């Protein structure tokens, strides 16, 4: 560590203000940019050191560089320090944090708020889907909020498992139990697999639990593989109908893409 880093300055450019969190890649810091194009701005800097997961972060970097959308987290720049085996990635700061923490701290969302978040994320996904990409890891931890005036804008992040449609004949099962579409366990993935995961996110926002929740982890995984979800009682009929479509075991019975979901939401006055 050089002397500038001792003063909490990374690469002579980013002043660390706080630690936002730790993930499998390394740490994410809230930083103030001290020079260059973004001078004076607060941003999120990911410092990735774990060699095993670097390829996933590279995939995210390569994908995000191509994307510019109000509901997809934006990547400002990156730097690879080959000698140290470290990748530094600068993102826009999502000051509300992720949706998982948001629901855990604020409690379940009202239907109106949950539908608002759903629409924001669906718009980000629509952009991806229309370009032939599948996100592959839609879950509350990968959805981030940012305060804009008095409102919160929600964006899709974490593109480490992104895929181009049809690029792999057999796929590995990655993701988080509770949010994986059942066909993914059979080595199949479609854009509608993201719709299934987003349905699980909607269930989580409204009830505080994913639709496969149970004490026993093995049993939960089994239920997820079988697509045996339990939709909690107490939700309105229109939400239950929406969840039944999104969480359908058969991928062809779901919305095929996020565009179809948005069209349905508009038609049914859910958006
Ligand atoms: N742009 C951002 N703005 C604000 N907070 C962020 C941002 N990116 C990540 N974080 C926070 O930093 C922490 C670590 O995030 P990170 O994305 O590195 O985890 P991860 O390694 O991807 O997670 P996982 O281990 O599930 O893959 C999380 O708490 C997350 O909410």
Automatic annotation (TrEMBL):
Q: Name one Pfam family in it.
A: Pkinase
**So which residues are the signal peptide here?**
none
Q: Does Cytoplasm count among this protein's keywords? A: no
Keywords, alphabetical: ATP-binding, Kinase, Nucleotide-binding, Serine/threonine-protein kinase, Transferase
This entry's Gene Ontology molecular function terms read: ATP binding; protein serine/threonine kinase activity
Indicate whether ATP-binding appears among the record's keywords: yes
Q: Mind telling me which SMART domains this protein's record contains? A: S_TKc
Question: Where, by residue number, does ATP bind?
Answer: 46
By its UniProt entry, which SUPFAM superfamilies does this protein fall under? Protein kinase-like (PK-like) (SSF56112)
- Ranges of residues in domain Protein kinase: 14-266
Name-wise, this protein is Serine/threonine protein kinase
Biological source species: Hydrogenobacter thermophilus (strain DSM 6534 / IAM 12695 / TK-6)
